[in-house]
Every structure is written in structure tokens, then in C-alpha cells.
């Protein structure tokens, strides 16, 4: 027996970051940056198309408090990073889920620990300054993830959710690839340690990956090679010959000993349902492309759409229709 679930993913954008951008450009109206406009947008979405799970990225501490108040009486549970780790500019990954789900386990991705665990053979050799710099960059170019295991008590159906946000800077494509690799490795270890007796649990890997599907950031995979992050996550492999592997990007023989990366591959909800990723999920005056995704494993995708869907080709975000520079991604799945 299965159940249909609706899943959303949205980068709400951190108020503090937007405030500094607005002051620098003077070109965007203050209303687009107010917490209330984001809460209103979420409230409207939940009222017209109820969600079972909503993954949010770049949630400020103020926004976390507002979400707790907003959804406390709406039969939803909010999972957010501990208060002790929050700073005004922190890009926190939060998950809202319907209380029909029971929280079985949770984990907050620790980047520094993951580097030490999975790259221990490279992190302490100290034979190359450029290699040491790369390991340092892996630790300081922050990427975040919140991982949950949920259960529907009546049917005992389990679901794992990983909401993540990769580092933004396109100059560090190899860092983003390794961060994606580390997050997936930690995700599978988390599931195995929490559910030792279960051979497989359906997985959702969603969020802002700050990586386009194609190597050309303004193009599509049909234009040529896949980006490093997208290729790793959808094929399960990244060759040392890929342009985003440090062996190619860093152009130093020290990285020739870094192996090709391998993980269990995921499918994309939008690619499976619509035949392609959205043309864009992030659109500003300087960039337009798809960098947000809903990946899955072991579920049946039923639908996939971006919200709002009535945007003109020349519209940039945020605007009166959406109070962030990212679109909301919505997908329905059949969970068995």
C-alpha cells in the first residue's frame, strides 16, 4: 500500500544578504526583502496546494522564529539547525513536514568532519601547498544539509529527506562537486546507522545545488557535457577527466592521485516527468539558469512544476510574484 506526497523546495534568501545587495544596487524595492512577504507566499502556497514536506534553504534565524510561530498551529513540524549554530548570515537548511509523519532520526551535515572522514588520505599528507589549499577550501567554502528519516506510523512506510545548499561561487566547481559527494556519502551512512535492518529506504535529495545541469552555465545538457555536480548525482560517477574534477581544474599533478568520484545515482523529478529540467529556477539581472533540483531514489514521480508559473521571459526575481530570487519547486510522488 502506498501514498501520494507533495514535496516543495525553495531558497527563501537570507534577509541580511539581500539587505546589503539592495543597499549596493538601490534597484530593488524593500518589500521584496521583508520576512512577511516570504511567510505570506508560503502561507498562500500551503493553502492552495497543501504540502507534505517543504525544504527551505537560506533561512535566517529571524525567519526560523517566524516559521515556528506560523506553522506551530498548522499541524506541521519544523526541523531547523540548533540555535547555538545560527548566525544572522547563516544559510540554514530547514524542513517542514506534516505531523502525520513521525521523525525517526535527524542529522545536520558537518562539513569539516566529513572532509576528515572521507578524505583522510589526502587531508594530512602536506606534500603539496596547492593540495593543502584545496583541502582548506573544502572546509571553509561552506555547504549545508539537513537530513531526516520520516515514518508514516499507520503503514510503517519510511522516507529519507536530505535538504541541502551547496557553495555558491562558480569559480570553485571542484569544491562543489566534492561537497555534493560528501553530502551523499554522509546521507547513506546516516540511513545505514539509523536503520540497520532495512535494506533500502526511499530517498529525496533536494535543494539549491548552485550548479546548472550543463557544463555551460547558460545552456542545457543537450548543448554538451553535464556539469560536475549534475553528472555525479545523476550518473553516480565523475571521471578524473571531467573539467570540474580537481585533477583537471587545478592543473597540478598533486591531484592526479584523487580518484574518480562514485556515489549511488539519483533521478531528477523534473527530468523524469517533463523530459527536462526547468529553463531557470534562479533569474537575476546577471544570471538565468536552473540550479535547484528535486532528486529522488525509490519513489515514483507523478508531477513537477515551478511556482509561480506565469512569469514573463524578461522578468527577474524577486518581484511582486515571488519574494526571492529562486522559484519554488513542487513535485508529487507515490511513496511505497
> Per CATH, what is the topology?
Deoxyribonuclease I, Chain A
CATH-defined architecture? 4-Layer Sandwich
> For the residues shown, what is the average pLDDT?
89
> Spatial order of the strands in the main sheet?
3-4-2-1-16-15
Instruction: Look at the structure and give the CATH class.
Output: Alpha Beta
User: What is the helix/strand order?
Assistant: EHHEHEEEHHHEEHEHEHEEHEEEEE
- List low-pLDDT spans: 20-27
Distance between the termini: 6 Å
Percent of residues in beta strands: 25-35%
Number of domains: 1
Oligomer: single chain
- Main sheet properties: 6 strands, mixed
Pfam family, one: Exo_endo_phos
GO molecular function: 3'-5'-RNA exonuclease activity; endonuclease activity
Domain Endonuclease/exonuclease/phosphatase: 9-326
Organism: Plasmodium coatneyi
Describe, in short, the structure shown.
Helix content is 30%, strand content 27%.
Structure description:
- The protein is of the alpha+beta class and 336 residues long.
- The chain is built from ten helices and 16 strands.
- It has a six-stranded mixed β-sheet.
- Strand 12 and strand 13 form a beta hairpin.
- Helix 4 crosses helix 7.
- The termini are close together.
- About 2% of the residues have low confidence.
- InterPro entries: CCR4/nocturin_mRNA_transcr (IPR050410), Endo/exonu/phosph_ase_sf (IPR036691), Endo/exonuclease/phosphatase (IPR005135).
- One of its GO terms (molecular function) is 3'-5'-RNA exonuclease activity.
